[in-house]
């Protein structure tokens, strides 16, 4: 009975709907209704296009900020921070923050802020807070927002490469951005454990920032190389004080009393060699140095003490006391001195030998040979293709 009443009510309502047109469409045909429908869909499409245009404009503005590092005239710390402030001001949603941090990390060395902890904090502050924090176990297991976490690891690796130790404030910033279960915090805790242990273990410390004067860097390098012998003395010479010198530069020479004694015992008939350049690092600067080397001393032949085939009575044997080997006598030769010059040229090395001759007169009798290797090798190539074809044809004939 109930189903019959329901069917009758639905049938009457359907009939009334078919007889009466909907409100607002009286006197309009089907074509007009379709036109209105198409018109509304076009309006919606236009609204979507407008939204897309706005997004494109915002993306363009963020792209311009990415290239603003290159357009800065004076590349210094304040200019770098100004670019960060401009990005935060123009991009409140922080769209493209991953790409922005990646570009900023590449330009830190050029702006000279790669060792500044405050700049790293300002760059880390670009990331939005709380959005990347996982809220359940699955998000933690599958590394919530991996691309953003990898950017944070890149920033910490940049700090580690430049020996910048983070502090407690950076830990709180990472907690607000990634949460306690992120791999970025694990990387931070490893850095906080190991970096303070190794920060003061360098036996040849260098001031920070490192000096730019090449003479100061060369003195640090020579002291570093000659520290194996505590009696080594570093002496500074000027090439203008040497007769017939064609250059005006400085020479830092290192020589100890043991090396002078070894040079006095050097046979006059055997030549000694000036070799180099070799490289040594002082902070982030590479310094070239040269050595004065002679032939190595022949060591005694090893004798087996357990061999009883030829028993000798040592009471009547006359043996010479063998002098122990010093740290300057190595397997590849005996090192008499080392130096670093301002130009690293052959003329400056010739002036260095003349300066050593005043304190070591035996150098006037020992022949000195120069074995220098050039760090720049010219590439031989043929620019003219016509000439190349002629040479190939001559070989074929």
Automatic annotation (TrEMBL):
Superkingdom per UniProt: Eukaryota
Name of one Pfam family that matches: ECSIT_N
GO BP, sorted A to Z: cell surface receptor protein serine/threonine kinase signaling pathway; innate immune response
Entry GO terms, CC: mitochondrion; nucleus
Keywords from the named record: Cytoplasm, Immunity, Innate immunity, Mitochondrion, Nucleus, Transit peptide
Domain spans labelled ECSIT C-terminal: 256-373
Family matches, as SMART domains: ECSIT_Cterm (SM01284)
Signal peptide: none
Transmembrane domains' residue ranges: none
InterPro entries noted in UniProt: ECIST_C, ECSIT, ECSIT_N
Similarity comment text for this entry: Belongs to the ECSIT family.
Name under which the protein is recorded: Evolutionarily conserved signaling intermediate in Toll pathway, mitochondrial
Organism: Harpegnathos saltator
């Amino acid at each position: 009975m109930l189903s019959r009443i329901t069917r009758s009510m639905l049938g009457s309502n359907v009939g009334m709907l078919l007889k009466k047109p909907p409100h607002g469409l009286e006197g309009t045909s089907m074509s007009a209704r379709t036109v209105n429908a198409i018109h509304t869909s076009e309006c919606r499409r236009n609204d979507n296009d407008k939204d897309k245009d706005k997004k494109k404009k915002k993306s363009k503005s963020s792209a311009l900020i990415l290239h603003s590092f290159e357009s800065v005239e004076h590349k210094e710390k304040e200019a770098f921070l100004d670019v960060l402030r401009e990005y935060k001001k123009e991009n409140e949603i922080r769209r493209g923050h991953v790409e922005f941090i990646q570009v900023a990390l590449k330009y830190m060395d050029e702006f000279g802020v790669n060792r500044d902890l405050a700049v790293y904090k300002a760059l880390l502050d670009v990331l939005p807070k709380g959005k990347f924090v996982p809220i359940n176990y699955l998000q933690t297991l599958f590394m919530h927002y991996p691309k953003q976490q990898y950017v944070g690891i890149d920033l910490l690796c940049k700090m580690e490469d430049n020996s910048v130790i983070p502090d407690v404030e950076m830990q709180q910033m990472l907690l607000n951005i990634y949460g306690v279960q992120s791999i970025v915090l694990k990387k931070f805790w490893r850095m906080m454990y190991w970096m303070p242990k190794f920060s003061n273990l360098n036996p040849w410390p260098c001031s920070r920032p490192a000096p730019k004067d090449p003479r100061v860097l060369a003195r640090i390098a020579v002291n570093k190389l000659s520290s194996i012998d505590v009696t080594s003395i570093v002496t500074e010479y000027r090439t203008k004080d040497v007769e017939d010198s064609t250059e005006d530069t400085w020479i830092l020479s290192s020589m100890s009393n043991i090396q002078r004694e070894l040079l006095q015992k050097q046979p006059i008939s055997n030549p000694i060699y000036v070799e180099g350049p070799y490289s040594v690092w002082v902070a982030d600067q590479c310094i070239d140095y040269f050595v004065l080397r002679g032939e190595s001393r022949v060591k005694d032949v090893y004798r087996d003490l357990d061999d009883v085939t030829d028993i000798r009575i040592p009471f009547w044997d006359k043996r010479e006391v063998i002098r122990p080997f010093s740290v300057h006598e190595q397997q590849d030769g005996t090192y008499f001195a080392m130096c670093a010059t301002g130009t690293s040229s052959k003329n400056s090395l010739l002036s260095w030998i003349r300066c050593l001759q005043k304190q070591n007169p035996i150098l006037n009798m020992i022949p000195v040979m120069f074995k220098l290797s050039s760090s720049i090798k010219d590439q031989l190539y043929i620019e003219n293709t016509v000439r190349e074809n002629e040479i190939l044809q001559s070989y074929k004939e």
